[in-house]
Design brief:
This protein is mainly alpha-helical. It has three domains: about 190 residues, no CATH class; about 130 residues, Fumarate Reductase Iron-sulfur Protein, Chain B, domain 2, CATH 1.10.1060; about 140 residues, Rossmann fold. Helix content is about 55%, strand content about 5%. A four-stranded parallel beta sheet has the order 2-1-3-4. Helix 19 links the parallel strand 3 and strand 4. Helix 4 runs antiparallel to helix 6, helix 8 crosses helix 11 and helix 11 packs across helix 13. About 35% of the residues are buried.
Length: about 500
Amino acid sequence: MPKKNKLIDFFLYSILHLRIWKKIYPGIMHFLIFWGVTIQLIGTAINLMQMKLFTPFELSIPRMGDYLYYEWIMDLAGIFIIVGVVMALIRRLVMKPKYLGYKWDDYFAIILLTLMGLAGFTTEALRLIGAIPDWMEYSFMGGIVSNLFLAWGVTPNIAFRLHPYFALLHIFLGLIFGATLPFTKMRHLVMAPLNILLRPRRHMGALAKIEDIEETEILGVGNINEFTSRELLSFDACLDCGRCEDVCPAAASGMDYSPRTLIQSLHENAVNSLIKKNGDGSSPELSADMFKEETLWACTTCGACLTRCPIFIRPPERVVDLRRYQILTTGEMPKSVGDTLRNMERQGNPWGMPPQDRMKWAEGLDIRELAPGDETDVLFFAGCAAAFDERNKKVTQSFVKLLQKANVDFGVLGLDEACCGETARRMGHEYIFQVMAEQNIETFNEIKFKRIVTQCPHCLNTLKNEYPQMGGNFEVIHSSQLLTEIVDDLSLDQANGNG
């Protein structure tokens, strides 16, 4: 991706938080806290530079009239923080969404931000009471608090004496904020934007390829230090917000799997093995719990979590990393997985159906079977489900009849068509996938066609987004897209609306 597009991408998701706004209440809450803290940090830095602290120069702005706007904006930012943390407390103590994480550092962040905001307004109010400046109304929140203190009997003399202590308290809370940043959930303030900026730009449906699979020594991930630095960063950046778990079909059905729990467990493994005792902590081997059958194999790799994560973490890819290690390194796998992979190796399809039966669905349809050197406009790649599943066969036959009715120039590979390999890849057997992909690409290259059409969403994703990794760059569309193009040529009977 060009640098310009990366910067636009960073702005949209790190600054404007487009994905966070998919849920309105937490979107507003996060907007208030983020911009409140950001403005306060910038404002504090400006204040320090005006006093020539920590810098070799003195910042000359804002002064005079501009300073009044500075005061107003800083007060508004403080209100943003207070309102945001109140919304966060209501969400955790009243609304209590079940997918939300409930850990000590969640409440630590809320309490610390609340105390910082209250200490800041108190310090400002005492300063205003002691000085009583003409521009007091511009610090509108400080003015409200100072009026409360005056009503409670706080005199300018008392305010003058108390102000240094509250100023020190405010500074102390700020130092706690900075010191605890790497060790609490608040680290996502730094890690999340970094992960958004550095994340892989592959299509979300495409898994990473194992290069030189016959020569490489590392197949999958069995030790935490075998993850790349970018992947370790994603574990550290995880917000523990639970949005991935909220849309996960495995979690919704009660299975012992959650993408949020997976990433948090990997983060815990990384901290224990790579950070504690300067990396001399526990063994780098991933815990046995990570490889439990009921956990590791519950993920369907559907990618629903990928569409919801605000910072683009990829749990399904980590699942496949662990599966690759089990299958390609240790040879351990559930019996059903082993049976499926054996079927793909021996019969060329996940169900173990006889390969000579692949074209039985086309009997009586007079479909053109393409041979090497033939030309056609559309290459119809049926896929295993369309060829062997009885219900899918009917859909395939109906689709072909529509193509024939619209006089579309198309053909099929016949018995030369092989499984796209998607099932093997997501089960972790990268070698079978690469062999099948190379075989199909070789067959495709022997025929001249403009585009491939398939009705299987798995085949669509694999042919379109993953075959380019293997050198197969083809235009691939779904059957529904082709039907949209030819609908005017079909003259279909319209439903009368009485059914």
